[in-house]
Amino acid sequence: MTITSICDIHTVATLPVNFGSVSSIATNVDQQGQLTINCTPGTAYTIALDNGQNGTDVNSRKMASGANLVPYQLYRDSARGPGDVWGSTTGVGGNVLAGSGTGAAVNVPVYGRTPSANFPAGTYNDLVVATVTY
User: Fold this and answer.
1) Residues 6+ apart with CB under 8 A from 27
2) What are 56-111's pLDDT values in tens digits?
3) Helix, strand, or coil here: 32?
4) Would you tell me how many other CB atoms lie within 10 Å of the CB of residue 59?
5) Nearest Cα to 30, choosing from 60, 73, 82?
6) Within 10 Å of residue 57's Cβ, how many Cβ atoms?
């Protein structure tokens, strides 16, 4: 028998980072979402998050409501520090999340923050693609 490695991000257990309804004077609005990944035991993996539909890089992610844009950021750690920004760069200085498979579904938190809600009223959205490499 030959056992091959596999990893899967479960879309059914994915929870979006939902900033909810906030006042336009709110600052540093923090919320948390979740990815669920299942990899073969001992399989090393990384999870990358792209720039979203409205960002040109991970430092310029934006939610859109028509032509209006609200900046936000996604983080690998609840501290939400500059070194915790979650992106798609691998290797030295990379900003992906690394782990090792357990053979069971593992919930991976995604921490979000929007620094300010001082924008026109509306419902703002973005779509970020997660990629697992193993």
Assistant:
1) 115, 116, 117
2) 999 999 999 999 999 999 999 999 999 999 999 887 778 999 999 999 999 999 99
3) strand
4) 12
5) 73
6) 11
Contact partners, residue 73, CB within 8 Å, separation at least 6: 58, 59, 61, 80, 85, 112, 113, 114, 115
Residue 98 contacts by C-beta under 8 Å, 6 or more apart in sequence?
Answer: 44, 45, 46
Which 3 state secondary structure label does DSSP give 63? strand
Kindly tell me if the per-residue pLDDT of 12 is higher than 80. no
pTM of this prediction?
A: 0.92
Strand-strand pairing, 27-39 and 62-65: unpaired
3-state helix, strand, coil in the chain (%, to 5): 5, 45, 50
Rounded to whole angstroms, the Cα distance separating 60 from 52 reads 9
